[in-house]
Specification:
two-stranded antiparallel ribbon; alpha+beta
Amino acid sequence: MSIAEKDPLMVDAYTGAYIIQLNVDSWGDQLAGSDFDYPYIPVFFAIDETGRATGEVIDGGAWSANIPENMAPALKEFFQEAGN
C-alpha cells in the first residue's frame, strides 16, 4: 500500500496529517539509536512541533493485511488523537 495510490479510505485517514515517507533500506542505519524505532513496516510516528518523536506510534502490528479496509480506521483514529 503506497501513499501515492490515493485510495479514498486512506486519503480520509490521512486528512489533517503531514506524512513524511522514508525508505528504511536507505535510511535505516541513520535511524538506529534514534526515537524512530520500527519493528513493523509501515510505521507512523507522531512528532511535535520541533520534529521530535512524541512516543505515540502506530505500525503494521495494529492491523492485519496492509489493505485500506484494515489500515484506514486505525490510522484515522491515530492521526486524530496524535494532534490532541
